[in-house]
Design a protein that fits this description.
By secondary structure, the protein is mainly alpha-helical. The chain has helices spanning 4-26, 29-45, 54-72. It is built from 3 helices and no strands. The chain is globular.
């Protein structure tokens, strides 16, 4: 199981890279921070697997940004 301390470590190690990706896609610093925090909040509330990798995190942030962009244009 992915525990809280593991998720906290991932957050500290990869936050800058994830935030940078979100900011590039969204062109909005505050929204980028919200997206990254939402990804980690969802990990804390539900994911029950051992393998949370940087690739998984990057894909999660990218997908949430794309969803945000699609909702913004509707």
């Amino acid at each position: 199981m992915t525990d809280k301390t593991h998720i906290e470590r991932l957050f500290r190690e990869h936050y800058r890279q994830l935030h940078r990706l979100a900011k590039i896609l969204l062109h909005d610093d505050e929204l980028a921070r919200d997206i990254v925090h939402d990804v980690f909040a969802s990990l804390l509330s539900g994911r029950k697997e051992n393998t949370v990798t940087i690739g998984f995190l990057l894909n999660s942030v990218r997908n949430r940004c794309l969803l945000q962009l699609s909702v913004g244009y509707i």
